[in-house]
Amino acid sequence: MQNIAQRTVRQSVHHLHQFTHRQQIILTGRAAAGLWSALRAWGFRNRVILIPANTCYIVLWAVLKSGNVPMLVDVDPLTANVTVEELAKHLTTNPAAVIPCHMYGLPAPIESICQWAQRHNIKVIEDAALALGAAVNGKPAGSWGDASLFSFGLGKIADNQVGGALLTDDPLLAQEIRRLLAAAPIWDDRLRALTNQWNGLYWPLHLYEAQNPDLLNLYPQLFALYGDLTVYQLADDDWADLPTLLRQLPQNLDHRGHLAALYDLHLGINHLTEDSPFLKPLSRPAGSSLWRYPLLVKPELRDDLLAYLWEHGIHDATRWYPPLHPMTITLAPHVNQPVTPTANLLGASIINLPLDEHVDQADVEHITSLIHEFLNAL
Ligand SMILES: Cc1ncc(COP(=O)(O)O)c(C=O)c1O
């Protein structure tokens, strides 16, 4: 007979199957572990893996841990996502795989990316870590590519604090991934403490690295100390909350959509012109499923605006993600990385405003009035 923990795992897999119709769904300690395991399962070693230049650093870590070579790809300025045009610039590196991301839950042109990759015998791992519930051309995020991933980590759309999923329709790939992950350490008090240490260190590093680029010299040592946080598995008990979170996804997404419309309204987003001086939205294609509300702020003002919001108690306004270029060249110094001006500019401009279940209409009104107050005082 199945115990309760096993039942929650089965139910979670069932929900993810309903969302995506993927044949093989593997719950992983975190999304990065799935990424690592897929690259290993395909047998890639010392191969170029194309990753967006504005994605989360853990994607870079997973590629490095898998023994492959990360190559940054610049992104489209209106969507913050990679495109076939940008990817095609790197074809001469003979990439083994590409990891396109639906940044902030905004759908990437994944259909054309998959077609392009297939033509060139390049594997696609669709990164839907921030896009649970999104759809591209009517097909769910998480159902594209040779494999796809979701994250259920802290602050994600379905926030189980930890966890991820790797999805594929290839049973042999799934079998090999399961075999590889079975040998990964189990998430326990030691890994939890190590994660807390790393998060405590990364936050100030991320805050100050633009002002003090010498901080980047610490990354190789920190990767040696904390790189093992990239791959682990969860005990069955750690999945206890996930079925409920997945069952409640429609309400969760409605709430996010409702709050995003309020941000739009109070920021006057729909009336901003192309050359609006301070604020700019990213384009939000049909099928978006917003993780946080992304907003581009004039780079010279971005950090002061964030500091203003933090001073007024809005601590969950963030600036994810910083450009990946600086960390990448310190961790993979032997690789000639392309310049990534658009990702750098987006990294210097982005703020993410909260949309989760703790936020309501009054919060949005308060946050947007603080933003206006700040801009009016300029
Ligand atoms: C875009 C993106 N991809 C992948 C990941 C990896 O997710 P996890 O933390 O579950 O490994 C994250 C997590 O922050 C992310 O933001």
Summarize the structure.
With 378 residues, the chain is of the alpha/beta class. Helix content is 43%, strand content 13%. The chain is globular, with a radius of gyration of 20 Å.
Short descriptors:
Aspartate Aminotransferase, domain 2, three-stranded antiparallel sheet, about 45% helix, alpha/beta, 14 helices, about 375 residues, seven-stranded mixed sheet, binds pyridoxal-5'-phosphate
Describe the structure in your own words.
This protein is an alpha/beta fold and 378 residues long. The chain has one domain: Aspartate Aminotransferase, domain 2, CATH 3.40.640. The protein is 43% helix and 13% strand. It has helices at 4-20, 31-41, 57-65, 84-88, 110-119, 171-182, 189-208, 219-226, 242-247, 249-267, 299-311, 325-331, 341-349, 361-376, and strands at 24-28, 48-52, 69-73, 97-98, 123-127, 135-136, 139-140, 147-151, 164-168, 279-281, 293-297, 350-353. It has a seven-stranded mixed β-sheet, sandwiched between helices. The longest helix has 20 residues, at 189-208. The termini are far apart. It binds pyridoxal-5'-phosphate. Residues 30-32, 55-56, 58-59, 101, 127, 129-130, 151, 153, 164 line the site of pyridoxal-5'-phosphate (PLP).
